[in-house]
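Changelog note: in this version the structure field was regenerated for every chain. One regenerated record is shown below for reference.
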Amino acid sequence: MADLDKSAVVIDQGASGIRAGLAGEDFPLVELRSRSDNELGKGPVDPGGGCESWHSVFQALGVGAEGRRLLICEPFGTSAHQRKERLELAFEEHRVSAVFMQLQPVLTLYALGLLTGLVLDCGEMGCRAAPVIDGYVLPHAFKSQAVGGRHVAARLLDLLRRRGYALSRDTSLAAVTAAKEKLCYLAVDREAEAKLARETTVGVTTYTLPDGHRLRLGAERFMAPEVLFDPQVMGLEAPGLAQLAHDAIQAADIDCRRALYQRMVLAGGGSLFPGCSARLAKDVRTLHASLAGVTSAEAGSKKMKINVDAVPRRKHLVFMGAAALADIMQDQGDAWVSAREWAEDPTRAAARCGSN
């Protein structure tokens, strides 16, 4: 258990909100949902306002910010300006004593004791494929798509409305999101699953909304999350998760690709659907076999081992890696950017944070 008087605070902030806790903890102690501009949550998360406020984080943790160290989990692609803004917020508004920043894909691997792998982070608003070699993200091979968990919920809502359910988009998205998280899954073989759904009722189940209305879900359970792998079912121009992973690996240096195929790591709440890891492995094998000119995915997999890690706790892998790293670094003062460094030269301090 972390020492409240000494432990660094860890903040992992994404499009869906903030997860925070203390160094050495296994799971975040605080989770705050972000506000969204519309039903698909468009618009940036503001770390200084509303339920996303860092004030709310420290208050919920029951610790003071002043004089405490802060580890910030940084999304890949954060600009120097955004980094400087976060440091300003930390040092000048919250008066923390020191800050360390590390990239989210690297922290995901840290949580599993790894330094190399392809991190596939599926969030509310999108999916990202980040090849990491020896603790460094390969920027030229990073890939992303703006299709994520919110789109699965929107797809499920549309499918149910086509079935005749009188569901309002504005009032029902939250309820449908809960149904999505509880009942949806990814079909390893979409055509076989669709045939089973047409010919039997084995996959049919019911779900009761908070207002008492009962929904009957069958094929919708796997048709909704299919948008992650085939965004065109919603008319979206994106490659899909398997193609995203394959493209990221192929964009990496040729001598790195085998290690990346052998260690694909799923992370984020959008990857929690049952069947996600099996579907990803199957589709990537097919793509690799096609690229290699092999007649079948099975034959191709004999030449290239393809493995997907999907640990049960993957929703919080970024935080877990950050908490472990912060605990290890508690006494490594030189690794942190201090408040004194910030006061002397903010630009230099921000650049040093960006070099981690």
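Spot check on this record: The first strand starts at residue 9 and ends at 14. Residues 37-52 have pLDDT under 50 and may be disordered.
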